[in-house]
Amino acid sequence: MIITHLAVSGVGRFRTRHVVRGLGAGLNLLCAPNEAGKSTLFRALTLALFARHGSKTEEIRRLESLGAELPACVEVGFQRGGAAYLLKKSFLRATGAKLFKNGALVADGRAADEAVWTALDLTPGTSAAEEAAFGLLWVRQGQSFEPAAPSDGTRALLSRVIEAEVGEVLGGERGERVLKSVADKLALDETAKGQPKAGGAWKAALDRRAEAQATLATLRATLAGLEADRTALTDKLRERDMLADPAEIARQKADRDAALAERDRTVQAEQAAQQAETEVAQRELALDRARKSHEELVGLDQRIAKTRDKIAALTRRVAEQADARTAQAARLATQEQAFGVLATQLADAERAVDRARRQEIAAREAERVAELSTRLAKARELREAIARIRHLITTIAVPADAIAAVEAAMQALDTARARAEAKASRVKITVAPAGRGRVTCAGEPVDATRDVAAVAPLTIAVGDLATIEVVPAASDDAAAIAAARQALDKALRDAGVGSLAEAHERRAKVADLQTEGRGLAAELAAIAPAPAKGAKEDGIAALERALAEAQASLDAGVEAGLDGTALPDRDALVRTRAEAEAARDRLRRAHADAQSAVLAARSETEAETLRLQAAQLDLGDQQGKLAEDLAICPDDRRVDRLARLAADAAQARAAFEAAAARAKELRAAVPTADSRVALDARVKRLVQAIDGREKRLAEVEREIANLQGRVATRGGEGLGEREAETADALALAETEVAAIERRLAALRLLRDTLTESRRAARDSYLGPVKTAMRPYLHALFPGAEAALDTGFAIDALTRAGAGEPFVQLSDGTREQVAIIVRLALGRLLAERGQAVPVVLDDSLVFSDDDRIERMFDVLTQAAEKQQMIVLTCRSRAFLNCGGQALTIERDEG
């Protein structure tokens, strides 16, 4: 099948008739921007071929042109089986369908819908046909990322095509039916994971066996419990006799009392040792206080001696610093006198330089006055020219809203005419070869066939033989057209133009004048730059102010010795200024050197003063410290006090040593910590043993009573007969389970055998698809292989020996591989006589530059087998795609 023609009117944004030009065999490329109507055309093509013309589905209602109550008309021309077909359908309003074959009408209305489906081998439906292979190969906007998902009918068609070639039963549709039958039988008794299924025979038999096993286990456990109770009762009676032995109880209590007495003696010894150790701590504290007092007085005596040595050294240092400060003050006075002489000479040199510079500036300002005068005259000429252009623009300008009103009126007139043409009768004139040149319609010759809408009275002349007048019935459309024409005339008058073309011409003239004005304004801005934002003057005023300032500077030069008319040589002025600046610079350096020397001398004088003051401060600080220490302990009392403190320290040490010896003796009499811990543990153990014996005896008495009651109760329940009956029921249930599991094992073996056979046959079954896909896939990914399942879905892509799951590939790669699979399936159908065009709407949106170039090669290669129609908004990216360029054009005929 090859689509050769597509035209629409009253569809989406296409209110009037529009035709897709250039359709043919091979690769067809329609590049148009967003909202140009590409997807609308795709949807119209799909509905025309597959939907009934009288259907009112939401998809069909979306064809309607908003704001225009027009029928949605679609024309599709295609070739199939050596015949040329033309299908015309109207949806929503004035619905209808006609099918032409080789130029002759072959079906009308509902019959035309079904005749198209018959021609395309499609299965009819209530409101639409099964799209079959078209649904697989016609990829809507946003669906190119998804892998091919054939419908049941399409999968059956592909299976028939493949099986006709490879002859595989297990790899195709019949193998599916056999395997499904086995799986259905297994599903009655087991889940997908091989577990027993609720409600199945296997689960019921297993439940009966489990119930018998549980009952038998319960009975046997009860019998075993009865025997265990009898044995436990005997053991408990022996244990009670042992726990109630009077001799053993008396021995335990005697051991406990002896351990408690020994623990009391140990506590008393520990208390005596702690009191002695407390006295040792007090004696040690008294010793520390006596020793510290003696050491502090020794330190005071040594500090007084050192302070007296420092005072003597600082006294000598203060005398030396006073002599150094006097000498430095004399040197500073000499340097300040020399610095004053250089400052006077530098001031004279600065005045000479200023005179020379003022003379040079006056000469330069004279030149600037001449240059500013020339720029000011040119700026005034440009300002006058800009004013003339602005006046001319005001005279010929047409407002934008007026032009918009004219364009809206023209569009309303076109809409009224289109509505009238849609409702009007059609007059079709066919001229035989003998009549060519003799028939005219509305004054224009008709050579072959002409189809005209009778909107207004129409005159048809047949040479000098006859004249036919076609007068349309009166309708509201004529009044609407007249009203729209009047609105157009009023809009033209309001705009002050005779036509829309004149309005656009005047706007273009205004644009040219604005461009010229901007050029003059730019030249004016270059000559007279506008001042900073917020200033109150323009560029020309700034020039005038600059000229006045330059003239004032020139007048000031007269005071420096210039007469303003005959300027001296500027080179001589420059040389004079340079000589004056050189002399000034020499004096500046000498002045700076002298100033540095004075500053250094002043710094040194200040440093000497600071050093003298620091020495005096240190001397006063040391004298103060000596006075403080002597106030604490004068020289005449220090020797006696040192002897008395030494004696006190010796007496405190003797008392401390005596207390320490007694505390050591008492601590040695106290048992060790391990002995005390062991004694405490023994007391605790004996007390717990007596308490535990008494508690255990009470528990044993209670347990004996419980056991005696259970043994008496279970003895008369007939447990042996019930155990035998339950064992027989368990044997019967196990026989039933074994029979069912043998049947299920046979079904599983059959299923596994079929699955393994299908796995072995799958490569052969999918071989034709992979063969058709391989050249496309290798063009994009050299050496790669794609893994498919029998439903033609993509499992993985293998590159460089490594498999990658399809879902983990990037968006761009998934889209490219999914399109390649569709192209391969289309090629397989085309090679077996089932050719269907491939339509891609806005695909390859995430392909990089290299990949998209290789995909263009794939599309070109695929187009050799079947028609390929590519719709895209990416004109720049698809520039190198090649193929036949399609256009959407308004059909005025």
Describe the structure.
This protein has 893 residues and is an alpha+beta fold. 66% of the residues lie in helices and 11% in strands. It is built from 18 helices and 21 strands. The strands form five sheets. It has a seven-stranded antiparallel sheet with strand order 7-6-5-4-1-2-21. It has a five-stranded parallel sheet with strand order 8-18-19-3-20, with helices on both faces. A hairpin with a 2-residue loop joins strand 6 and strand 7. It is flat, with a radius of gyration of 60 Å. About 1% of the residues have low confidence.
Secondary-structure map with pairings?
Layout lengths: L1 E8 L8 E4 L5 E5 L6 H13 L7 H4 L10 E9 L2 E9 L4 E6 L2 E5 L1 H10 L13 H5 E2 L12 H15 L6 H15 L13 H43 L2 H151 L3 H24 L2 E5 L8 E3 L2 E2 L3 E5 L4 E5 L3 E5 L5 H20 L4 H28 L11 H21 L10 H63 L2 H35 L3 H42 L4 H62 L4 E4 L5 E6 L2 E4 L5 H21 L6 E4 L7 H14 L5 E5 L11 E2 L1 E4 L3
Parallel strand pairs: 3-19, 3-20, 8-18, 18-19
Antiparallel strand pairs: 1-2, 1-4, 2-21, 4-5, 5-6, 6-7, 9-12, 10-11, 10-13, 13-14, 15-16, 16-17
